[in-house]
């Protein structure tokens, strides 16, 4: 994991802490996504949202396999949730996204929690 990856994820986490402290839990995922984009862009970070990621299977192009909520600096995938509880499949889903996009780091962020630090999970793809 490069220092840059860690710096990017630190900026994302800091932004999530700030957003949650100002708004609290319970809003739609799309609201948190739009606000997080604004916060990260204000920090000078490149943020792509709702990014379709194409999939190849045995050399054949299958089309888009998933849509990433956010990709920050073309390095970190951010999957945003606003749900009661994260389930093991959510972690596996993000790991699948990382593998298919050949990215090393992802953040799974659930805003529907009392303390946002308990809703932020870091997922690393061993490639």
UniProtKB/TrEMBL annotation:
One Pfam family named in its UniProt record: PDDEXK_3
Protein name: GxxExxY protein
Record organism: Anditalea andensis
């Amino acid at each position: 994991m490069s220092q840059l990856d860690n710096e990017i994820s630190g900026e994302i986490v800091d932004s999530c802490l700030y957003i949650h402290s100002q708004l609290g839990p319970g809003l739609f995922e799309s609201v948190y996504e739009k606000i997080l984009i604004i916060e990260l862009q204000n920090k000078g970070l490149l943020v792509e949202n709702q990014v379709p990621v194409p999939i190849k299977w045995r050399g054949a192009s299958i089309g888009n396999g998933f849509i990433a909520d956010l990709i920050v600096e073309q390095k970190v995938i951010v999957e945003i949730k606003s749900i009661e509880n994260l389930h093991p499949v959510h972690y596996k889903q993000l790991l699948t996204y990382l593998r298919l996009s050949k990215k090393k780091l992802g953040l799974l962020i659930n805003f529907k929690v009392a303390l946002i630090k308990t809703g932020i999970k870091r997922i690393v793809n061993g490639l």
